[in-house]
C-alpha cells in the first residue's frame, strides 16, 4: 500500500486590484496613487507624497491646551508692573490667550485657533516661570527668542549643610560686595543668576550653566572669590580661543 500525503493547507488568493469601498476613503486612494512607482529604462523613481504641516488644532483634535502658573506673593507686585511687557510677546508673537487670574493668583495660558507652533505653549510657560523665579523680563524673554535655553535650580543646603551665619556668609560670597562676584560669574559664563534666599536659579545654555554652577558651588564650599574669579578668566579665555 502506498502512503499518500494529503495537504490540507488552504491557499488564500488575494486580488491586488480589489479594494473594499468601506475601508479606504477617496483621499487615501488618491494619496496611494501618488506613491506609485514609475519604471523608466528599468530605473525606479519613487514619487513621495507631499503633506502640508499639521496645525496645533489638528494635533490636539481641536481641544485647546491650558497651562496655569502660580504667582508667589512676593512676585505679584512686579507682575502687575511688567504685565504689559509679559503678555505682548505671548499674544502678538506666539498667538496665545493669556490672562491673570487675581482670585487664584495664577497666570493662565491657552492655545487658540491662530496658534501655529506646537511648542509655543511650553515656551510661554517657561518664560512666565522664569519671571516668577526672579529673572527680569528682558532676560526671561530670551527663552522665547533663543532655542536651547534652560533654567537650573538648586539649594545651597544641597551642596553643603549650612545654617545661621554660615549660610549668610555663603550667600555673601556668591553675591559679593554690591553684587560684583555675581556679575563677574554672569559675564564670564554668559548666564543670568538669581539669588532667592538659599535657592539659586541659573538661566543659560547647558554648557554655560555648568560653568556658572561650578563657580557657585566652589564659593559655597569656601573658595575665596579671587580664586574663583581667576578660574573664570582662564575658562573665558579658552572659550574665546574655540570661537
From TrEMBL:
One of its GO terms (biological process) is ribosome biogenesis. Residues 148-221 form the K Homology domain. It is found in: Nucleus, Nucleolus. Keywords: Nucleus, RNA-binding. GO terms for molecular function: RNA binding. Component of the small ribosomal subunit, ribosomal RNA processing complex (SSU RRP complex). Required for small ribosomal subunit (SSU) synthesis. Has a role in the processing of early nucleolar and late cytoplasmic pre-RNA species. This is Pre-rRNA-processing protein PNO1. The lineage of its organism: Eukaryota, Fungi, Fungi incertae sedis, Mucoromycota, Glomeromycotina.
Amino acid at each position: 500500500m502506498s502512503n499518500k500525503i494529503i495537504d490540507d493547507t488552504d491557499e488564500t488568493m488575494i486580488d491586488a486590484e480589489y479594494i473594499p469601498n468601506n475601508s479606504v476613503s477617496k483621499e487615501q486612494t488618491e494619496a496611494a496613487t501618488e506613491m506609485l512607482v514609475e519604471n523608466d529604462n528599468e530605473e525606479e523613481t519613487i514619487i513621495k507624497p507631499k503633506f502640508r504641516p499639521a496645525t496645533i488644532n489638528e494635533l490636539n483634535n481641536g481641544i485647546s491646551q491650558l497651562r496655569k502658573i502660580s504667582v508667589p506673593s512676593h512676585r505679584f507686585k512686579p507682575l502687575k508692573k511688567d504685565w504689559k511687557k509679559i503678555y505682548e510677546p505671548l499674544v502678538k508673537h506666539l498667538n496665545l490667550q493669556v490672562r491673570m487670574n487675581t482670585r487664584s493668583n495664577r497666570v493662565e495660558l491657552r492655545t487658540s485657533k491662530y496658534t501655529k507652533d506646537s511648542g509655543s505653549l511650553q515656551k510661554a510657560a517657561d518664560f512666565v516661570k522664569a519671571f516668577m523665579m526672579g529673572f527680569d523680563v528682558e532676560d526671561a524673554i530670551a527663552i522665547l527668542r533663543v532655542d536651547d535655553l534652560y533654567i537650573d535650580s538648586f539649594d545651597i543646603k544641597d551642596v553643603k549643610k549650612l545654617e545661621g551665619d554660615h549660610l549668610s556668609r555663603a550667600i555673601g560670597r556668591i553675591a559679593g560686595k554690591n553684587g560684583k562676584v555675581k556679575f563677574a560669574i554672569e559675564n564670564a559664563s554668559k548666564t543670568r543668576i538669581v539669588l532667592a534666599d538659599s535657592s539659586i536659579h541659573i538661566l543659560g545654555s547647558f554648557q554655560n550653566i555648568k560653568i556658572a554652577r561650578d563657580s557657585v558651588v566652589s564659593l559655597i564650599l569656601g573658595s575665596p572669590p579671587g580664586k574663583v574669579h581667576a578660574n573664570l578668566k582662564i575658562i573665558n579665555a579658552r572659550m574665546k580661543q574655540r570661537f
